[in-house]
Specification:
The chain has helices spanning 10-22, 33-43, 59-67, 88-94, 107-117, and strands spanning 2-6, 26-30, 47-51, 77-81, 99-102. By secondary structure, it is α/β, with parallel strands linked by helices. It is globular, with a radius of gyration of 13 Å.
Length: 121
């Protein structure tokens, strides 16, 4: 499965790249929301993970632009954030994210989400 990871933190991208690659997924990385939208349009990933706070275009904006493309209406887009406050999960899900993960990212949570959204893989 091809997964697009968008996060402005090199350490976070490296962690996700390492784990996802180890699990057999092809990983493409974006350093901001604008680049994430461009890479999604170009590469058509089967799952996306967007940090909510990124430069140029935040995760909410990137998700809205990706969802506006017909081919991504049903593609899983997972929100990822270090700033988890009460109500943030609900806000992300209401905005169109498929799921919500918090940092520091727990491997068990990531695996559970991958299993949930890659049943067809």
């Amino acid at each position: 499965m091809t997964i697009l990871v968008a996060d402005d933190s090199e350490k976070n991208r490296e962690l996700l790249r390492t784990v996802l690659s180890h699990l057999g997924h092809a990983v493409t990385e974006a350093t901001n929301g604008r680049q994430a939208v461009e890479l999604a349009a170009e590469l058509a990933p089967e799952l996306m993970i967007f940090d909510l706070q990124m430069p140029e275009l935040d995760g909410f904006g990137a998700m809205r632009e990706v969802r506006a493309m017909d081919r991504f209406r049903e593609t899983p887009v997972l929100a990822l954030t270090a700033y988890a406050m009460e109500g943030d999960r609900e806000k992300a899900l209401a905005a169109g994210f498929t799921s919500y993960l918090t940092k520091p990212l727990r491997l068990a949570d990531l695996r559970a989400e991958l299993a949930r959204w890659t049943v067809q893989a």
